[in-house]
Amino acid sequence: MTDKISKTKQNVLPAELGYRLPAEWEKHDATWLGWPHNKSDWPGKFAPIPWVYAEIVRRISAGEKARIIVESKEHELRARTVLKSANVDLSNVEFFVLKTDRGWTRDSGPQFVKNSDGVAQVNFRFTGWAKYPNHEKDRHLPAFISKKLGLHAFLPEVADRHVVLEGGSIDYNGNGSILTTEECLLDEKVQSRNPGFTKDGYAKVFHDYLGVDNVLWLGKGIAGDDTHGHVDDLCRFVNAKTILLVQEENSMDDNYRSLQENRERAQDFRLEDGSMPDIQYLPMPQPVIFKGQRLPASYANFYVSNAAVLVPTFDDPNDMRALGIIGELITDRPIIGIHALDLVWGLGTLHCLTHEQPAK
Which CATH number covers residue 311? Predict the structure, then answer.
């Protein structure tokens, strides 16, 4: 399967055509999800996962199309049965058959960019977080979507090398600023995505392909994150000027020191216009540990859909506090908690499994 590259745009960079990376809170045409099928992602805990997905789809489909990747027609039938039981309006749900390894569409899917003419894709390379060898099916997802939707796709290359980037490694305000971490993108020893790349190299890729001119670098991600530093568990834009950063109040917790360092870094941040962002703070839940493993439980892994902001909750005293903070900052749609204690056993929650497709 190859990416659709039109002759007229083949050698033109997205930035030269005025494309930009829109913010998540801008209007969507749809949200892409992969219906769960890989039981090894939730060993011993798979049974409740489709029901969690059903609640997520119910909330999303209230305001936009939910476009769901399934393994087969039989897999689609099972998904439909669960969704119907959960009272999901299936008229706003579309199914697409594609064999995948996992369903974390945030990372394996394309980056959607837009200009005055409409929406296009930037199809980065996916390598299973530079960790899992079973990712060969997932890497076809961007080309599959561009073919199904008839969208032009740009293939980001540097020195004839297809650039690796996962959607969860960046967050953006739609005006030209982007958040990311050194741990994820620059570490050469652990889960190295683009060996030899520097901050300047990433800055050029972000400028050329995503229309971004201002990169805000944090240090490490949170404990338990098998992606090695994805920013969507750590720090998020909630509007063009406001950044929400997680903080750990227990000085004995593994996250405490690294999150304090990120707080210090953020004090020096400047937005694309040179102004200081408004930095707000989000608590962490108490450590979520299952079978001796620390899991990446974070309220920062929320997803902004057209109809609501979906926030993972963990049966924790800080659940209501986190929902309240996010609700004070995002006031144009309801804030809804989604129980994620079972979901996080898959080492990701709401933002990881969703991928917005912006409206034209």
Answer: 3.75.10.10
Check pLDDT > 70 for residue 174: yes
List alpha helices for the chain, DSSP H: 49-60, 73-85, 105-108, 141-149, 182-186, 199-210, 256-266, 319-329, 350-353
What's the pTM value of the predicted model, to 2 decimals?
0.96
**Spatial CA neighbour of 235 closest among 175, 202, 279:** 279
Domain that holds residue 293: 14-358
DSSP, collapsed to helix, strand or coil, labels residue 281 as strand
Is 210 part of a structural domain of the chain? yes
Determine whether 31 is exposed, middle or buried from the number of CB atoms within 10 Å of its CB (0-12, 13-18, 19+). buried
Locate all alpha helices (DSSP H) within 104-223, ordered by sequence: 105-108, 141-149, 182-186, 199-210
The verdict on residue 322 lying in a domain is yes
Domain contains 176: yes
DSSP characters for 42-108? Answer: STT--TTHHHHHHHHHHHHTTTSEEEEEESSHHHHHHHHHHHHHTT--GGGEEEEE---S---HHHH
Residue 230's contacts (CB-CB under 8 Å, 6 or more residues apart) are 166, 168, 169, 181, 184, 221, 352
- What is the per-residue pLDDT for 11? 80
Evaluate if residue 32 carries a pLDDT over 80.
yes
How many independent structural domains does the chain possess?
1
Please report whether residue 9 resides in a domain: no
